[in-house]
Amino acid sequence: MVIRFRDYSKRLSDFEQEILVRCPQCDRIAKILTVNSEQSSLSSIKRIICQHCSYTKQQSNVAKGKLALRLWQNNYMAPRNSSYGILDHFFGLPLWLQTSCCGHVLWAYNEAHLNFLESYVQSKLRERLPDETLGWHNGSLASRLPRWIKLTQHREKVLQKIQQLKHSL
Ligand SMILES: [Zn+2]
Fold it and tell me: For 85, what's the count of Cα atoms within 13 Å in the CB-facing half-sphere?
């Protein structure tokens, strides 16, 4: 059976509602959640919560949301530091889901994001259909994935690494 991929409406920001990171206090898995403010649906507050040690912190965040897209456009690069790898762009904490793969870093915000990458990589037929409201456009996550993830020869390796990341949840 040919697995088709048609989900070209997803954007990176669709996965930002929950970002899994390494807790700065106990080094275990913590979540960054989006709390929408009452004043405006455009301004949202990001809150980090660790269920292991009760660490919590929050910050309002409007401008930094745009940074995510810029990072994406820069060939799937996110801020790095030498010992922790890819950092989230709200609090600067290491992403929980990241691993080296094919000479690059494979990373995801959460399980839904991992599933999205998996279904893309698994598909042999990647159909692009025009968006209902926008028509043909390049804003979708799938159309912005880095080339190395799309390469057929990397398929098995990428899928294997995605499975490894899922086991760390
Ligand atoms: Zn903690």
Answer: 15
